[in-house]
Specification:
Strand content: 5-15%
GO molecular function: triacylglycerol lipase activity
EC number: 3.1.1.-
Radius of gyration: 28 Å
Largest sheet: 8 strands, mixed
Distance between the termini: 28 Å
Shape: globular
Oligomer: single chain
CATH class of one domain: Alpha Beta
Protein name: Patatin-like phospholipase domain-containing protein
Number of helices: 27
Function: Lipid hydrolase.
Membrane topology: Single-pass membrane protein
Length: 771
C-alpha cells in the first residue's frame, strides 16, 4: 500500500489504529485543528496542550526535552532479558546443539582457507593502491588545465560564493566565458528526444491558449512521468555550471503552467470528477521525491548544510529518510517547522551536539565493561533535543506534514531490514529509533525501541527485539521508499567516508562539468576514466566473492561485507567535500567554528544541484496543489463519507456501492462489463485525420486520440482525461533513458494507468512507454 502524501495528516485518536469506525482514515483540516471526533473523545484539551507546548519550546536552545521517567523506562528495557511472552519469565537458553536456541560452536579455519582469504585481500589492497594512483593522476591533470588564468579566477570565485544568488551569477559568468551558453541554446542532444519535446511544447501552448482543458489533460497524461523523453537525465545538467538546455527548461515551465491552468479551469470546461481523476492519475504516474541522508559518524553533520541550502530555496522534500548519523539530522528536520529549522540551524547548534563529549578515562572503562564506547541511555538524553522529547513518528507527521523515515536492522542477522515511519511504526518514539539506527557494534549496543500509548506512557515495543545500525545493510532505502510512498526521484546526500573515496563522475555531474575540453569528454581523458571504472568494478567483484562465499569473519555478530555492496546513489547525489582531518575526528563533536564550516560546505555542494531539483519539485507541487484544490471543492459538494479515503487504498476516494474507480478500472462491487469509456481504445496515426473531419462534434475520447496522434504518441484511453496511458511512437534514443540510473529502455518498461492493466478488446493489455 502506498501512502497518499497529498492528504493532510490524520489525528492521533488511539495508539493502535489510525482508522475511523467506518474504516476510513480520519482527516485533519489545513490548520491542523483537532477533529470533532477527537474533541468528543476527550482528547481536545490534551492535544491543545501538547501542540502549544511544542510550539513554545521548539526554538529554545537551552531546553533539553528530557523526561526522567522515560529514561528510566528505556534503562529498564535495556537491562531486561528477553521473555517468553507478555509479562512472562525470562527465556532460558537451552544448551544443546540440536535445540531451538543452539550454542554457536567455534569452527576451526584450516590453513588453506586462511591462505585463500589472505590472497583475495592482497589483490584488493593492490587494486586499491592502483585506484588511488589513477585518481591522483586525474586530479593533477584537472588542476593544471582549469586552475590558471581567467578560468581559474572564475572557478575560485564560484567556490568562495557566500549565497546561492551570488553562486548563480558567478556560474552564469563562467558559462559565458567557456561558451557553454551556446550549448544551452542548441536543442539537439543525444541524451533526450528534442523533436518530441518540441512537439509537446508547441501542442500544450496551443491547447492552453484555446482553453481546451481536455486536450491539455490528454497531453499532460503523456508527459507527466519520470524522465519523459529523457528530460530528467542528469547528463543534461552536467555540461554547464548552471541550468540545462533552453528547450528542456521551456518544456518544464510550460508543463508547470499547464498544470496551473487545469487547477484554475472552471467546472464548465472540466468537471470536478474528471479533474480529480486527472490529478490522482498523474500524481501516481510521476511519483514523489525524497531526501535521503546517509550515515557517516561525524561526517553526517555536513547534512545540516544540505538541509539549509534546500530550505533557503523552499525545496525541502516532504519525505525524508535518515540512517545512523543522517537519522539525527532527518529527525531534526521533520520534527520542526521550516521557520523553527531556520532559526535553530546556526553554528550555535554545536552546543547541543555532545554525543562524543565523554573523556577517554570514562569511555575506555565503559568499552571494557559493556563492549561499547557509548552509553545508550545517555545518547537518548542528548538526542531528545533533536526529536523534541518523546515525539513519535505519527506526531511528527501531524505537526509538520513531513514524513520521517529511519532505517534500522534487527539484531538477528537473518531478519530483514526495517524502515520506521508513521505507517510502519506510528507510535514508536523517534529518539529510540535514531539511536538504534546509530548502534554500530563496538560503538553502541543494540537498542530496544519504545512506543507511546494513548495516555502518553512509554513501553518497550513488544515482539520486536533489539535493533542496530541500518547503514550496515541498507544505507539508502530506495526500494522501501518506492513501495510505501511511490518515490521515483531520490535526492541523496552521501557522506559515508568509505564510499566517498570512490565518488567519480567520468562525464561530469549536475552543475560540475568536466574541468577541461570546455566541459566535454572524460575527466582526465578516456584512458584514465576507463581505468578508474575498470578498477572500481574489479574491487566490487572481489567484495562480492567475499560476501557470497562468506569468507569475511563476523565482528560483533555482524557480517560487514555488505557495507561496500549497497546502492549508495540516487537520482541526484550530493557529495559534501571532506578533509583528511575529518578522518581523525570521525567520533568527535564539532565546535561552533567547525559546524559553521560544515554547513557552508554542505550548502556549496548543494547549490549546483538546485536547478535540477527545482525543475522536478515545481511540477510535483503543482500537482499536489491541484489535488488539494479539488479535494476542498469536493468536500463542499459531497457528503463527508464520499471523500474519505479507504483504509485499503489511500489513493482513491470511497464511492457508492457498485461504482467504479475511474482511474484503476476496478469496481467496488462486481458490476459486470465496464463502461464503454472504460474499455479503452488503441490509438493509431489515422486518428488525427478522423478527428479533424469530425471537428467540433468529436467525442472527448476521439479528440484526445487525435491530439496524441498528432504528437506521434499512441496509447490506451481510459475513462475521461484521467484514464490515458500513452507510448511514444518514436521513442527517445537509448541514451535518453539515463543508463547511469540503471534504467533499461530497450523494449521499454511496462506502464499502466494506476499501475494496473486495462481491459482492451477482451484481453488484458498494457501500454508501453518508450519515450
Amino acid at each position: 500500500m502506498e501512502a497518499d502524501l497529498s492528504q493532510p495528516p490524520p489525528p492521533r485518536s488511539s495508539a493502535s489504529s489510525p482508522s475511523n469506525d467506518d474504516g476510513s482514515i480520519p482527516r485533519r483540516n489545513a490548520a491542523n485543528r483537532p477533529t470533532r471526533k477527537e474533541a468528543m473523545s476527550g482528547q481536545l484539551d490534551k492535544t491543545k496542550d501538547k501542540w502549544s507546548e511544542w510550539s513554545e519550546r521548539a526554538t529554545d536552545m537551552s531546553c533539553d526535552w528530557v523526561v526522567d521517567d522515560d529514561m528510566k523506562v528505556l534503562a529498564e528495557a535495556l537491562s531486561d532479558e528477553p521473555t517468553d511472552g507478555l509479562g512472562g519469565e525470562p527465556t532460558e537458553k537451552i544448551r544443546a546443539v540440536s535445540d531451538f536456541a543452539p550454542i554457536k560452536e567455534r569452527v576451526r579455519r584450516g590453513p588453506k582457507r586462511r591462505r585463500d582469504i589472505l590472497l583475495i585481500f592482497t589483490i584488493i589492497f593492490l587494486e586499491f593502491l592502483t585506484y588511488l594512483l589513477v585518481r591522483q593522476m586525474v586530479n593533477i591533470i584537472e588542476f593544471f588545465s582549469s586552475w590558471h588564468g581567467q578560468r581559474g579566477r572564475l572557478r575560485l570565485a564560484l567556490r568562495n560564493s557566500k549565497t546561492y544568488e551570488e553562486w548563480k551569477q558567478r556560474a552564469l559568468a563562467l558559462d559565458d566565458y567557456l561558451h557553454l551558453s551556446e550549448w544551452k541554446k542548441s536543442a539537439p542532444n543525444a541524451y533526450y528526444d528534442a523533436p518530441l519535446v518540441r512537439r509537446v511544447l508547441r501542442t500544450l501552448r496551443e491547447l492552453r491558449e484555446k482553453e481546451d482543458a481536455e486536450g491539455v489533460c490528454a497531453v499532460l497524461h503523456a508527459v507527466l512521468r519520470s524522465n519523459f523523453a529523457g528530460t530528467e537525465s542528469f547528463r543534461l545538467y552536467s555540461e554547464s555550471y548552471y541550468g540545462t538546455k533552453e528547450l528542456v527548461q521551456e518544456f518544464v515551465d510550460e508543463v508547470t503552467r499547464s498544470i496551473g491552468y487545469i487547477r484554475t479551469v472552471p467546472p464548465s470546461l472540466l468537471p470536478l470528477e474528471d479533474k480529480a481523476d486527472f490529478f490522482r492519475s498523474v500524481a501516481k504516474n510521476l511519483g514523489a521525491s525524497a531526501l535521503c541522508l546517509s550515515g557517516g559518524a561525524s561526517f553526517g553533520y555536513y547534512h545540516f548544510g544540505v538541509i539549509r541550502a534546500l530550505l533557503d530555496q523552499n525545496l525541502l522534500p516532504r519525505v525524508v529518510t535518515g540512517t545512523s548519523a543522517g537519522a539525527i539530522v532527518a529527525a531534526f528536520a521533520c520534527c520542526r517547522t521550516d521557520s523553527e529549522i531556520a532559526q535553530l540551524l546556526t553554528p550555535a547548534l554545536a552546543d547541543r551536539i555532545t554525543a562524543c563529549s565523554d573523556p577517554f578515562s570514562v569511555w575506555i572503562q565503559r568499552a571494557w565493561r559493556t563492549g561499547a564506547r557509548f552509553d545508550t541511555v545517555e545518547w537518548a538524553r542528548r538526542a531528545s533535543f533533536f526529536t523534541m522529547g518523546n515525539m513519535t513518528f505519527r506526531e511528527a507527521w501531524e505537526r509538520t506534514g513531513r514524513v520521517l523515515n529511519v532505517s534500522v536492522i534487527p539484531y538477528d542477522t537473518h531478519s530483514p531490514t526495517k524502515l520506521l515511519n508513521y505507517l510502519t511504526a506510528p507510535d514508536c518514539v523517534i529518539y529510540t529509533a535514531v539511536i538504534a539506527s546509530a548502534a554500530v557494534p563496538g560503538i553502541l549496543n543494540p537498542v530496544v525501541l519504545l512506543t507511546k500509548d494513548k495516555n502518553g506512557k512509554l513501553h518497550p515495543w513488544e515482539f520486536q527485539g533489539r535493533h542496530k545500525d541500518g547503514s550496515l545493510r541498507v544505507d539508502i532505502p530506495l526500494h522501501s521508499l518506492h513501495l510505501l510512498y511511490n518515490v521515483n526521484f531520490s535526492l541523496v546526500s552521501q557522506v559515508n567516508p568509505h564510499i566517498h573515496l570512490f565518488n567519480f563522475a567520468p562525464r561530469g555531474a549536475p552543475g560540475r562539468p568536466v574541468a577541461h575540453r570546455s566541459g566535454k569528454g572524460w575527466r582526465g581523458g578516456f584512458l584514465l576514466s576507463a581505468a578508474e571504472q575498470y578498477l572500481k568494478i574489479e574491487l566490487m567483484k572481489n567484495f562480492r566473492v567475499i560476501r557470497d562465499l562468506e569468507l569475511l569473519p563476523e565482528f560483533g555478530g555482524q557480517n560487514w561485507s555488505a557495507v561496500f555492496l549497497q546502492k549508495f546513489e540516487g537520482s541526484v547525489t550530493i557529495w559534501p567535500k571532506s578533509r583528511l582531518k575529518d578522518w581523525f575526528r570521525i567520533l568527535t563533536d564539532p565546535d561552533r567554528d567547525e559546524l559553521a564550516r560544515m554547513i557552508r560546505v554542505g550548502q556549496g555542494v548543494t547549490w549546483p544541484k538546485i536547478k535540477m531539483i527545482e525543475n522536478r519539485l515545481k511540477i510535483e507541487r503543482q500537482i499536489d496543489l491541484g489535488r488539494e484544490d479539488v479535494r476542498r471543492a469536493l468536500e463542499g459538494l459531497q457528503p463527508p463519507a464520499l471523500v474519505h479515503r479507504t483504509s485499503s487504498d489511500p489513493h482513491f476516494p470511497s464511492s457508492a456501492a457498485g461504482s467504479r474507480s475511474r482511474t484503476s478500472g476496478t469496481p467496488t462491487q462486481d458490476s459486470g462489463e465496464p463502461d464503454p469509456e472504460e474499455r479503452g481504445v488503441t490509438f493509431d496515426s489515422a486518428a488525427a485525420e478522423q478527428g479533424q473531419r469530425e471537428g467540433e462534434h468529436a467525442t472527448p475520447a476521439k479528440r484526445r486520440q487525435a491530439i496524441l496522434a498528432r504528437l506521434g504518441l499512441k496509447g490506451v484511453a481510459g475513462a475521461g482525461p484521467g484514464g490515458v496511458t500513452v507510448t511514444a511512437d518514436r521513442g527517445a534514443r537509448a541514451r535518453a533513458a539515463g543508463p547511469e540510473r540503471g534504467e533499461r529502455r530497450r523494449g521499454g518498461p511496462i506502464r499502466t494507468v494506476g499501475n494496473r492493466p486495462r481491459t482492451v478488446g477482451g484481453r488484458a493489455r498494457m501500454a508501453q512507454v518508450r519515450g
